[in-house]
Amino acid sequence: MEAAAKPVLLIGAGHMGGALIAGWRLAGALAPDDLMVRDPHPGPEALAAAAWGAALNGPDAALAAANTVVLAVGPAAWRQAAEDIAVHLGKEAVVVSIVAGVAERDLSAAFDGRPVARVMPTTAAAIGRCAASVWANDAHARRRARALFEPLGAVVDLPREAQLHAATAACGSAPAYFYALVEALQSAAISAGLEPAAARILARGALTGAAVLLEASGQDAGDLRREVASPGGTTQAALGVLMGADGLGPLMERTVAAAVARSMQLGASR
Ligand SMILES: NC(=O)c1ccc[n+]([C@@H]2O[C@H](COP(=O)([O-])OP(=O)(O)OC[C@H]3O[C@@H](n4cnc5c(N)ncnc54)[C@H](OP(=O)(O)O)[C@@H]3O)[C@@H](O)[C@H]2O)c1
Question: Considering its fold, how many domains does the chain have in total?
């Protein structure tokens, strides 16, 4: 990570903030001195970072050294968090928010006009497999956000802030869709006659193996799907249901639309 971005101050080290800490450490992107963490109830990653030498819940006076502030608290907590720290930050600090739904205009006002970038990441940041969307009005803030997230996986620049609603719905939330698919397949495998232990191993193995193959082969998902589905075979019978008129396509449209609507609500209510 470029020197100008450090030290990084992480506000909120829960599921996502913890994944960022793990990913930065895994990538060697930060030294212990480069990381300050604030969280009232630090989780395992924050505690591990503190044991490594990062500053956990240090004094307010130390916050002035932070060149980048990563806001990773829940949408209900962001305003209070900003109020608590903005007064202690240096004038040059850049704010990078991963909070779903909250607009740059509101964030920048709460941080006394400092440049703000918004990022929508995924929890696989913890293993260097994040997919992050970045948007900022300010070119300096956009570069800063890219510097933070490039060591963690794929980064996509969004041309418009409004697209962050779609990025949240189709990417930030999407790991949960995959896990729900694994759960549903496990249940269906049990209904079809497998023991629970076998259903767990086989459903997880089949889907995670397919995900790894998707990445390793570089092929389109549709091509890989067609390779599994021989004409007149069992997979084709299954896909007749899964990809039918009331199947996965319309279900995913409704799923993503629900997340977009919620992201818009969160933005409107803060
Ligand atoms: N989880 C994801 O996959 C994901 C993906 C993309 C974006 N995001 C965004 O990331 C943000 C965090 O999500 P999350 O899942 O990590 O939530 P989370 O697990 O609840 O973590 C938020 C953390 O922030 C702490 N916190 C609350 N107020 C604070 C304050 N004033 N100063 C410092 N820390 C404070 C919370 O402590 P307490 O528990 O004690 O309140 C908690 O540990 C959300 O805004 C979400 O939209 C999440």
Answer: 2
pTM over the 0.70 mark: yes
Q: Are 140 and 186 part of one and the same domain?
A: no
Instruction: End-to-end CA distance of the chain: give it in Å, rounded.
Output: 32
pLDDT in the model for residue 270: 54
* Same domain assignment for residues 183 and 144: no
Q: Is residue 145 part of a domain?
A: yes
Does ligand 1 have an atom closer than 6 angstroms to the CB of 172? yes
Sign, Cα dihedral of 109, 110, 115, 119: negative
* DSSP bridge pairs for 116: 95
Write the CA distances from 25 to 127, 217, 219, integer angstroms.
10, 28, 31
Residue 69 Cβ inside 6 Å of ligand 1? The answer reads no
Cβ(128) – ligand 1 distance below 6 Å: no
Residue 167 CB–ligand 1 contact under 6 Å: no
Distance 127 CA to ligand 1 centre (A): 19
Express each pLDDT in 137-172 by its tens digit: 999 999 999 999 999 999 999 999 999 999 999 999
Q: Whose CA is nearest to atom 42 of ligand 1?
A: 14
Note the pLDDT tens digit of each residue in 52-99: 999 999 999 999 999 999 999 999 999 999 999 999 999 999 999 999
* Same domain assignment for residues 124 and 180: no
123 lines ligand 1 (CB under 6 A): yes
- Given 117, 135, 161, which residue is the final one in a domain? 161
Contact between 12 and 80 (Cβ < 8 Å)? no
**In ligand 1, which atom is closest to the CA atom of 266?**
47
Write out the residue range of the structural domain in which residue 194 sits: 174-265
